[in-house]
Design goal:
This protein is an alpha+beta fold and 380 residues long. It is 29% helix and 30% strand. It contains 10 helices and 18 strands. The strands form 4 sheets. Strands 13-12-9-10-11-14-18-16 form an 8-stranded antiparallel beta sheet. It is globular, with a radius of gyration of 20 Å. The relative contact order is 0.12.
Length: 380
């Protein structure tokens, strides 16, 4: 059995998927959730969960120790590396990185490079500026090194002015807010081409003062052929230009049949859980051998799945009885250990559901989220 390491802010999804595909797994993340530890052969902490940031020194130390033991073939990087190509490169010197390499991450997450490429290929995207607009109304401020939507804010302050340019880093940019449904395309790439697995509706809500926090995804969903062709063409162009490898997602806004590309996440996305077994094995084959899966985008008759992060509704303490109630709930994942404290807005766990259409799945996810909150009413 081949052993691999999976590294992420939260590694549960990657760990379970890899185990299902026959790998022995070493997981490295911030949370060490009950089901993460249950799935893997061993687990290593990458820092304080409240930081939502991978501790680079801990990661490199753990990879070096695993490499010296000689039984782990490589590591897969999940969320938390969007703005850290140097850390990817340092880790790759210790153990093979199975996925998009550091230099490719650096280029595709650099706003001017990314959006200039889209313009050169005529790929539609919301209007972007690298400096603050005079009238900030209708503009967003984004951090290309962020993930999960926590980095997005509205540019206009109460006085209608954007923050001054010298208050922002080089990887921040301004983007026109655009109408439509937030969507993503899940894919597997080999550095030159990509295989589209399917399209997903994203669950995005205001949370903790942020207007567009990623809360989950539902898919696969069917899109009109004209839309699918636009997204596929953009995806294949981006993969070839930026040498993207393995699992990833292309985020876009869909307004009727108009596609506005937002960004590429060149690492295993949360939507990978919607596509069943074999996905980590396909990721490894694409990265190591260059082989792409032949499966097309899912058909409308296929099962639709959904996953949603449940955030703490208030400050709470998770005691043993509350932890057991969560663990007993069907479709509840990312289970925190007992004796854990949460602030309002912290990720608490996640719920999953499946059904015959996206609307039904969204309703089931909402019921699951509400049930989790209700089960915690006795927590203080």
């Amino acid at each position: 059995m081949t052993a691999i390491a999976v590294v992420s802010i939260s590694a549960r999804m990657l760990a379970e998927s890899a185990v299902a595909d026959g790998f022995e797994v070493v997981a490295l993340d911030l949370f060490g959730d009950t089901d993460t530890r249950r799935a893997c052969a061993e687990w290593h902490s990458l820092g304080d969960p409240a930081s939502l940031s991978v501790d680079g020194a801990r990661l490199l130390s753990a990879l070096q120790a695993l490499a010296q033991r000689g039984r782990v073939a490589g590591w897969i990087a999940g969320s938390g590396f969007e703005g850290r190509p140097d850390l990817l490169e340092s880790g790759a010197t210790l153990m093979p990185l199975i996925g998009t390499q550091g230099d490719a991450m650096r280029r595709v997450r650099e706003p001017k490079t990314f959006f200039s490429f889209l313009d050169s290929r005529g790929i539609v995207h919301p209007e972007v500026r690298m400096t603050a607009p005079e009238d900030a109304a209708g503009w967003l401020v984004k951090d290309a090194h962020g993930c999960g939507g926590w980095h997005i804010s509205r540019a206009a302050s109460q006085r209608g002015r954007a923050p001054p340019d010298d208050a922002l880093s080089a990887h921040h940019y301004f983007q026109r807010e655009t109408s439509g449904t937030p969507m993503s395309a899940t894919f597997i790439a080999n550095g030159g081409d990509a295989s589209l697995l399917g399209f997903n509706e994203l669950i995005v809500r205001p949370l903790a003062g942020r207007p567009f926090v990623f809360c989950g995804s539902v898919g696969p969903v069917q899109l009109p052929d004209i839309v699918g062709a636009q997204v596929t063409a953009a995806l294949r162009a981006l993969v070839a230009a930026f040498s993207l490898r393995g699992l990833g997602s292309l985020d876009f806004m869909l307004d009727v049949d108009t596609v506005n590309v937002l960004e590429v996440n060149p690492r295993p996305p949360a939507s990978m859980a919607l596509y069943g077994r074999g996905i980590v094995a396909a990721h490894v084959r694409a990265c190591v051998q260059g082989d792409l899966p032949s499966r097309p985008a899912q058909a409308a008759s296929d099962l639709v799945r959904g996953n949603e992060v449940v955030f703490a509704p208030r400050r709470l303490w998770l005691d043993e009885p509350a932890s057991q109630r969560l663990a007993a709930r069907a479709g509840c994942h990312d289970l925190p250990a007992a004796a854990s404290g949460f602030e309002a807005g912290d990720p608490l766990c996640s719920v999953s559901a499946s059904g015959t259409n996206a609307g039904q799945v969204r309703e089931l996810l909402q019921l699951g989220r509400m049930a989790v909150h209700q089960s915690l009413e006795s927590s203080v």
